[in-house]
Design goal:
This protein has 576 residues and is of the alpha/beta class. The longest helix has 16 residues, at 148-163. It is globular and about 75 Å long.
């Protein structure tokens, strides 16, 4: 890496910090004074993979999902007003779902005229909006750089804070002086351009590990509960479960942490999860919770028959100490990265029975099972059957990404992740328009694997600029649109009083074709199969529009344990 010299600008220093990251990648859209950083990146050639996106929300969702796929922070950079105004979806998702991300943005404050209300001014004060305060509300931390040295050092701090402890998005808001100003001899001496070295991860004490292992040895019915935070420890989760012969259940965000075809995989918990998973977790006397906050949404508002620290022994593993015992009484809190702690715990715990325990077999045999419906429903397709069929057709190592709405629930319930596969859904904010940019990010984070974005026609209309970015950047992905001309969750929740929950019938395939996508309108098993086979074989952006029925709803999938009435369910009218 070329050292900075006297006269180097803050923007050049920021570019060098970005280039010093491990496998550096930046998603962005030049604007405001960030143009200076983009110009400095140009001089660094291929040191940074810089991806131009067509809208700021695409960049922030790509950065969020890239962080979840890899555990490393991507950088997203654009003009501050529009990172805030358009890009909030990915930043909030990263904040609520704990994904590492570095957000670089300028305040476009107007320099010496900033106190006289210039155009787009975002540094606070009279006649301006307060960009630092707004970003602080949706990030793990926000830094404000006002000179070139701060620009460099705060960008370095952002990387550290984004990846230390519980991951999350960290922003640096640059004053124009921070990017345009030049460094003096003293400034250069203060700035160190060493590559980022992650801080050592915490590790539980030996006595805490021994006590947790003893609790496992004394247990009769152990269940492993894996959340989104267990994605970096998929092999370790499965090895511990196999060692203990313990069923594995996941939160919705943790779906796919273990292959769902494995004997020990009991499914997804929660209001719209699998009855097998809910019953197994509820029957456990000891729960090993890995990378999950055991949050209220995942546990059906802390339903005591699902998980209850007063009647169950909970061993909780999390890298963030504040998450341990946050939502439930935890007997054995273990702070550390799951991939580090699980092998230590497994080495101390006695091996379980040679086969699946009888109690777990009984749960599996007696739990409610919703059979997959027939695919064809007149001239439309059953959406649950479509989700199940996609699992059969795509490669084992496919990377499925989901959007908000009922389409996500159908994927959650009926799409089975096979060994080597991955599925990602919104884990915190749950916004529409997530699936396509997340799949686009997968082409960079997990090259060689086919990303499959599944979404409804509502989310599709919010993703057209992501499709354009995918075509422009010559990516290879498959987009499957469940087209029912409705906000399904809202419509079904409204019951007999539908209002503002249906859409017009547009030719979605033709729209995608005009962008440059390879498109198919598929209504039969043969047409869907042919379109997926073509998407696997031909590197391009493939859009398959499937007209689906409204016969299935979230009410169909609702867990018997949830026990809410139709009126209570319908009270939540959010499409997200």
């Amino acid at each position: 890496m070329t050292a900075l010299t006297p006269g180097s600008t803050g923007a050049q220093g920021v570019a060098h910090v970005v280039a010093g990251l491990q496998d550096p990648i930046l998603f962005g859209l030049p604007g405001g004074h960030t143009v200076e950083v983009f110009d400095a990146l140009r001089d660094l050639g291929d040191d940074v993979e810089a991806v131009l996106v067509r809208e700021e929300s695409i960049g922030t969702v790509m950065a969020e999902s890239y962080g979840r796929f890899t555990g490393r922070p991507a950088v997203v950079m654009a003009q501050g007003a529009w990172i805030l105004g358009a890009g909030g979806i990915g930043i909030m998702e990263a904040h609520l779902g704990s994904s590492p991300m570095v957000v670089l943005l300028d305040a476009t404050e107007g320099g010496s005229y900033s106190h006289h209300g210039p155009y787009q001014s975002g540094f606070g004060g009279y006649g301006a909006f307060d960009l630092p305060a707004a970003m602080a509300a949706i990030t793990k931390r926000t830094f404000v750089a006002t000179d070139p040295v701060q620009a460099v050092q705060m960008t370095q701090l952002a990387v550290t804070h984004a990846t230390t402890g519980e991951p999350g998005p960290v922003a640096v808001v640059f004053h124009s002086r921070a990017l345009l100003g030049r460094m003096t001899d003293d400034d250069v001496r203060r700035v160190t351009l060493a590559p980022h070295v992650p801080a050592p991860a915490p590790c539980p004490e030996t006595r805490s590990l021994d006590a947790a292992a003893a609790a496992l040895d004394d247990a009769d019915r152990v269940v492993v509960l894996a959340g989104n935070g267990a994605r970096a420890a998929q092999d370790e989760v499965l090895r511990l479960a196999e060692h203990l012969r313990a069923p594995v259940v996941t939160t919705p965000g943790g779906k796919g942490v273990v292959p769902e075809t494995h004997e020990l995989a009991f499914g997804v918990i929660g209001s719209f999860g699998h009855d097998t998973a809910n019953r197994a977790l509820g029957a456990a006397d000891t729960v090993v919770a890995v990378g999950t906050k055991i949050g209220a949404t995942d546990t059906m508002e802390e339903h005591p028959d699902l998980v209850d620290g007063t009647r169950q022994t909970i061993v909780q593993i999390d890298v963030e100490p504040l998450n341990l015992g946050w939502t439930q009484r935890v007997a054995h809190p273990l702070v550390g990265r799951a991939q580090d702690v699980l092998p230590l715990l497994g080495a101390r715990a006695a091996a379980g029975p040679a086969r699946l325990p009888d109690w777990a077999r009984q749960v599996r045999d007696t739990a409610r099972e919703l059979p997959v419906p027939e695919l064809a429903e007149g001239d439309r397709v059953n959406p649950r059957a479509l989700a199940a069929l996609l699992a059969e057709l795509v490669p084992d190592d496919a990377v499925a990404t989901c959007d908000a709405g009922e389409n996500r629930l159908f994927m959650l319930h009926d799409y089975r992740v096979r060994p080597g596969g991955t599925i990602l859904q919104p884990n915190g904010g749950g916004g529409m328009g997530y699936a396509v940019p997340a799949a686009l990010a997968a082409t960079y984070a997990l090259p060689g694997r086919l990303p499959v974005a599944v979404l409804g026609d509502g989310g599709y209309s919010m993703s057209l600029h992501a499709l354009m970015s995918a075509v422009e950047n010559r990516r290879h992905l498959l987009v499957v649109v469940m087209d029912n001309q409705a906000l399904g969750w809202v419509l079904h929740g409204q019951g007999e009083r539908p209002f503002m929950s249906t859409f017009g019938d547009f030719d979605l395939a033709a729209i995608a074709g005009s962008i440059g996508c390879t498109t198919t309108l598929a209504r039969t098993r043969e047409e869907i199969t042919g379109a997926v086979d073509r998407a696997v074989a031909e590197p391009a952006v493939h859009v398959v529009v499937v007209p689906v029925s409204l016969s299935e709803s979230f009410l169909t999938l609702r867990s018997p344990m949830a026990g809410a009435s139709h009126e209570e369910v319908g009270a939540d009218r959010s499409p997200e």
